[in-house]
């Protein structure tokens, strides 16, 4: 009898072990067959934009669905079908995800994005979003039908991405180069004449607060055959200016300014002749060429294409025409 009980117990134990092993094996098969949580998802899910960086290249999204992981390639979608931009998830933390924008599919749709907006997210391959309307989309985005199409980026600039950002010109820096003329009365000639020299001016403006700028300007004029034949005079001027931005129609901006200008004159041959009277006149005229002074005026910027401006300076320090680039 004891032998029968032992045999029965042994057979029961073996049957139970085989059953558990089968269940465990099936579980492993199911796990392997199930779709991976990383990398791709055929369904579009919704998250909310929490922050957009000033460069508009870095977004912070909610990750309430816990479906975003570092290294995921995703597409931002509006209306459940309209692709806006392609991005890469760089980091996730505390139900938030930081993404870097890699490509903008449509500037028109991009301009709608703002802090607090809910957007659709598609992970992985997004080719199905372009199957039906790819040709139409290329035609709409690839053609410039009028001059206004050159200014699509202004739509992005006018969108209130940051509640505390009221800038008319969003980048911090504007660097420019300009052409102007430097004129003076040459009293060394038998009859006083107005001499004119070409001045090249280079400027760098930094926006230290919304619409407030500090700008440094360097101007250079080289006068040949002055104060005498076969001599040269170099006129350098340095100007510091404080500006404020006002927005005008036609993608233009007016920046009134005040500041101070300092001159530095280099004329090594002045006062080196054998005529003491002429030497005194040359030295006096050289000293009068540049006088340090307070300055005031205005700068007009007119956007040509995104990132580039036509620049005009009108002031008691300089009248110049040139170009500028923002970054």
Topology overview:
Elements: H1 2-33, E1 45-52, E2 58-62, E3 73-78, E4 82-93, E5 96-104, H2 107-110, E6 118-123, H3 134-142, H4 152-158, E7 173-186, E8 193-209, E9 212-224, E10 232-244, E11 246-248, E12 252-266, H5 276-289, E13 293-305, E14 308-315, E15 319-326
Antiparallel strand pairs: 1-2, 1-6, 2-5, 3-4, 3-6, 4-5, 7-8, 7-15, 8-9, 9-10, 10-12, 11-12, 12-13, 13-14, 14-15
Summarize the model shown.
The chain has 5 helices and 15 strands.
Can you write the helix and strand succession as a string? HEEEEEHEHHEEEEEEHEEE
Please give the CATH architecture of the largest domain: Beta Barrel
**Integer-rounded radius of gyration:** 35 Å
Percent strand: over 45%
Total helices: the number is 5
Largest sheet: 8 strands, antiparallel, barrel
Identify the overall geometry: rod-shaped
* Distance separating the two termini: 94 Å
Low-confidence stretches: 19-39, 134-138, 153-164
Structural class: alpha+beta
The strand count comes to: 15
Q: Give the overall pLDDT as a whole number.
A: 80
- Tally of structural domains: 2
Examine the coordinates and then state which fold CATH places here, giving the name of the CATH topology of the largest domain: Porin
Strand order of the largest sheet: 7-8-9-10-12-13-14-15
How does this model look, in words?
- By secondary structure, this protein is α+β, with helices and mostly antiparallel strands.
- The chain has 2 domains: 45-125 and 149-158, Elongation Factor Tu (Ef-tu), domain 3 (Beta Barrel); 173-326, Porin, CATH 2.40.160.20.
- It contains 5 helices and 15 strands.
- The chain has helices at residues 2-33, 107-110, 134-142, 152-158, 276-289; strands at residues 45-52, 58-62, 73-78, 82-93, 96-104, 118-123, 173-186, 193-209, 212-224, 232-244, 246-248, 252-266, 293-305, 308-315, 319-326.
- The protein has an 8-stranded antiparallel barrel with strand order 7-8-9-10-12-13-14-15. Strands 1-2-5-4-3-6 form a 6-stranded antiparallel barrel.
- The chain is rod-shaped, with a radius of gyration of 35 Å.
- The N and C termini lie far apart (94 Å).
- The relative contact order is 0.10.
């Amino acid at each position: 009898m004891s032998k029968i009980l032992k045999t029965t117990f042994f057979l029961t134990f073996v049957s139970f072990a085989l059953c558990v092993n089968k269940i465990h094996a099936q579980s492993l098969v199911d796990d392997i067959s199930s779709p991976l949580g990383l990398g791709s998802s055929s369904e579009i899910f919704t998250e909310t934009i929490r922050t957009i960086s000033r460069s508009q290249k870095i977004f912070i999204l909610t990750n309430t669905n816990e479906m975003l992981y570092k290294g995921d390639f995703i597409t931002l979608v509006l209306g459940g079908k309209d692709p806006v931009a392609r991005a890469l998830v760089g980091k996730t933390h505390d139900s938030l995800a930081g993404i870097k924008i890699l490509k903008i599919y449509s500037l028109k749709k991009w301009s709608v994005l703002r802090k607090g907006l809910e957007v659709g997210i598609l992970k992985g391959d997004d080719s199905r979003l372009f199957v039906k309307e790819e040709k139409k989309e290329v035609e709409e985005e690839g053609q410039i039908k009028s001059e206004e199409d050159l200014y699509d980026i202004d739509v992005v600039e006018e969108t209130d991405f940051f509640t505390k950002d009221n800038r008319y010109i969003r980048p911090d820096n504007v660097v420019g180069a300009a052409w102007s003329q430097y004129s003076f009365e040459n009293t060394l000639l038998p009859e006083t004449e107005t001499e004119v020299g070409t001045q090249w001016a280079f400027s760098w403006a930094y926006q230290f607060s919304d619409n407030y700028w500090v700008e440094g300007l360097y101007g250079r004029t080289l006068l040949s055959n002055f104060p005498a034949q076969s001599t040269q005079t170099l006129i350098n001027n340095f100007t510091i200016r404080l500006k404020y931005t006002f927005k005008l129609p036609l993608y233009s901006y007016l920046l009134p300014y005040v500041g101070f200008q300092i001159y530095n004159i280099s004329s090594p041959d002045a006062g080196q002749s054998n005529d003491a009277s002429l030497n005194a006149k040359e030295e006096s005229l050289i000293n009068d060429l540049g006088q340090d002074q307070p300055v005031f005026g205005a700068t007009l910027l007119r956007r040509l294409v995104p990132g580039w401006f036509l620049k005009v300076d009108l002031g008691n320090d300089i009248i110049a025409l040139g170009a500028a680039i923002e970054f």
